[in-house]
Amino acid sequence: MSEIKLAATARTEFGKGAARRIRRAHQVPAVIYGHGEAPVHITLPGHETMLALKHANALLSIELDGTSHLAIVKDIQRDPIKPIIEHVDLLTVRAGEKVTVDIPVHVTGESAPGTVALVEAQTLQVEAEATHIPENVEVSIEGLEAGTTVTAGEVSLPSGVTLLGDPEAAVVVVAQERTEEEPETGEETPAEAAAADEATADAEPAEEA
């Protein structure tokens, strides 16, 4: 995907109090580091950063003091209750450089009737060029029968993207859809039990006056 530009300002105040003031101003505290350079603490615009981070593995162009820094997100700290980004770690990258990232798995299609698809891996760890990281990888389950397993090695990856980890690891498993259990032989159903109770009541003699 194309670069997303974010205008940053250098931070001079640190600590929890400073971070709270930054967030109250609808901004996001962040740090950018990599390639042996000293970490640079910055502030990012809140709304634009929220929109940018909706894209998995977004390639960011951080504009700071007249200089552009290509970066990818290394870590995001979010508020556990409110929809607020508390802090972002950014890793600087260069064109052509290989990076290790987790790519979301997007399942498409419908498996065979009477089956259900169980997603065993939400992401795949891959190596890709920093400027050509796919936003996701698609796994088609169209028409797959129960008992079918799609492994990591069977997932089609874009050119230049290499799978890391076990190629035999299950990504999607197609299983038979579970149905309501039939009552065992000789076991009364609720309807049968109710009918039997009613018949017993009708057979009881009326009390003598």
UniProtKB/TrEMBL annotation:
One of its GO terms (cellular component) is cytosolic large ribosomal subunit. The keyword Ribonucleoprotein applies. Residues 98-177 form the Large ribosomal subunit protein bL25 beta domain. GO terms for molecular function: 5S rRNA binding; structural constituent of ribosome. Keywords: Ribonucleoprotein, Ribosomal protein, RNA-binding, rRNA-binding. Part of the 50S ribosomal subunit; part of the 5S rRNA/L5/L18/L25 subcomplex. Contacts the 5S rRNA. Binds to the 5S rRNA independently of L5 and L18. Belongs to the bacterial ribosomal protein bL25 family. CTC subfamily. This is Large ribosomal subunit protein bL25. The gene is rplY.
